[in-house]
Amino acid sequence: YLSNASSNGNDSKKFKGDIRSPGIPSRVIHVRKLPNDINEAEVISLGLPFGKVTNLLMLKGKNQAFLEMNTEESAQTMVSYYSSVTPVIRNHPIYMQYSNHKELKTDNSPNQVRAQAALQAVNAVQTGSMSLNTVDGAGMGSQSPVLRVIVENLFYPVTLDVLHQIFSKFGTVLKIITFTKNNQFQALVQYSDGMTAQHAKLSLDGQNIYNACCTLRISFSKLTSLNVKYNNDKSRDYTRPDLPTGDSQPSLNAQTMAAAALTAPGIISASPYAGAHGFPPTFAIQQAAGLSLQGMPAGAFASLGVPGAAAAAAAAAAAGRLSLSGYTAGGNSVMLVSNLNPESVTPQCLFILFGVYGDVMRVKILFNKKENALVQMSDGTQAQLAMSHLNGQKLYGKALRVTLSKHTTVQLPREGHEDQGLTKDYSNSPLHRFKKPGSKNYSNIFPPSSTLHLSNIPLSSTDVVMVFPGSLTILFIFFVRKDRKMALIQLGSVEEAIESLIKFHNHDLGENHHLRVSFSKSTI
Fold first, then answer.
1. Do residue 380 and residue 455 come from a single domain?
2. Least crowded by CB within 10 Å, which of 54, 197, 359, 435?
3. With the CA atoms of 133, 137, 138 and 140 taken in that order, what torsion angle do they form, in degrees rounded to the nearest 10?
4. Taking the complete model, does pTM exceed 0.85, yes or no?
5. Which 3-state string (H, E, C) describes 101-140?
6. What's 17's DSSP letter?
7. pLDDT digit string (tens) for 73-89?
8. In the beta sheet, which residues pair with residue 219?
9. Which of 399, 396, 328, 322 is nearest to 125 (CA)?
10. H or E element in which residue 254 lies
11. What is the pLDDT of residues 23-69, one digit of tens each?
């Protein structure tokens, strides 16, 4: 056992022996070269994707820390991953190795109070425990589910959708309102419960959305619920997709956003879901030597971006297994979809719709209760994403209800047992949108809208309009980008657009072209 002393000086002397590079695995990991303003939550977030963090000792005077994992296996997974992908916090590459010490025993000295409070908060979220020993100043206890967010150093535009993507990493976001007050861009973000809000605040407060700018300052709001009247670029109630848009001015379009982001040195406007594997969102990951992050520039990543799919694949290969217990998004990949229209819904239609937000592995419509179905995604982050975008949307006249299922996998029927085609295995489907590492589809994930984006149209084709039923179509615009023909189609409602996407995605246009249909961020 190792007890820490009450000052950073004594701590440093006690742990000085770890500067050499021991290769013997240990649950305790020695973390070096941390920035001066490092906080406890950031150090804990380095370990969260790999297992439970059981103890923390901060040596701020030395820019070092010791992190204790719950098992040696999770510590090995963590060291193995970070040996190939160097973590970067505020432009500081962070280095880590196994400690000589087999476990940490911390006392109640003043410099450890914050570390223990931060650990307590994370563990409360991981276990779902509400009975916490409150530490003064740690922001614990029963808090509002509404967070007040101020974005400082706003050098590049931050949209409601960007905030939704970042905050959805920690749980389902119910409502967002954005506004400008005292010349500052601010937002109110409502989760379903205060515990999720606490976890998001702990991990995101002080982080940059893009490198060196757009800093998040987060506090708990005095409000306990938000009243959203319009769904537009300033406010959104994700539980009420039927709300009117009001008269909000349209926000910067996707091209303007992309151009702004690409002109910024070292900044990438990748969706915070880019990796879609639940990696820690609280630090940038630098490109490691020999590790190709496909489709990404060699510069630093957006601070709240997650590693590209190639990095995720490398990590998974190095890890064999990733325990993502600390993240709601890294949990169960199976959703229960209820309130379906049994006359119209098929496994194929659910596969196409949910496939907009991730790779659907299996679908089962329940034999005795055909208004219910189980949909299994390739990971928990994709399930979270599909749930946040599709819950409450109307499909064939009925509002979908989407929740995480208690099942962890969808069972296929036993051989010789026919289930009327109600269970389908799509694990080898060629229609998966996200199986290619670094797929650009990760940055084109948008909520259901009445405008559809059509691509993979043959240059010679003029009859795509004929594919869509004329009575539903309001506007149709063709454009060509990089020798590829695309189109935007505006339909009468979001529900019509959803049904059209299901019906016409992968429609055979001839010349070996199958139509690709997605929801568009733009309106015509």
1. no
2. 435
3. 60
4. no
5. CCCCECCCCHHHHHHHHHHHHHHHHHHCCCCCCCCCCCCC
6. G
7. 889 888 887 787 777 77
8. 148
9. 328
10. helix 254-263
11. 789 999 999 999 988 888 888 878 877 778 999 999 888 999 999 99
According to DSSP, the residues that pair with 178 across neighbouring strands are 187
Tokens of 104: 């940490």
Whether residue 116 is contained in a domain is answered as yes
Q: Is the dihedral of CA 416, 417, 419, 424 positive or negative?
A: negative
Look up residue 413 and give its two tokens.
Answer: 């029927």
pLDDT of 327 reads 31
Structurally, how many domains does the chain consist of? 4
Which of 425, 440, 461 terminates a domain? The answer is 425
Q: Are 291 and 310 in contact (CB under 8 A)?
A: yes
- At 235 the pLDDT is 94
Tokens of 42: 């950031």
Task: Give the model's confidence band at 318: pLDDT under 50 very low, under 70 low, under 90 confident, else very high.
Answer: very low
DSSP at 300:
P
In whole angstroms, give the CA distance from residue 130 to residue 471: 54
**Domain, as residue range, for 385:** 334-425
Sheet holding 473-481, edge to edge: 473-481, 484-491, 451-457, 516-519
**Are residues 412 and 347 located together in one domain of the fold?**
yes
Output phi, psi for 457, to 5 deg. Answer: -90, 130
What is the amino acid identity at position 438?
G
Q: What is the mean pLDDT of residues 480-499?
A: 83
Which strands sit side by side in the sheet containing 360-365, from one edge to the other?
A: 401-404, 334-338, 373-377, 360-365, 423-425
Contacts of 458 (CB under 8 A, 6+ apart): 485, 509, 510, 511, 513
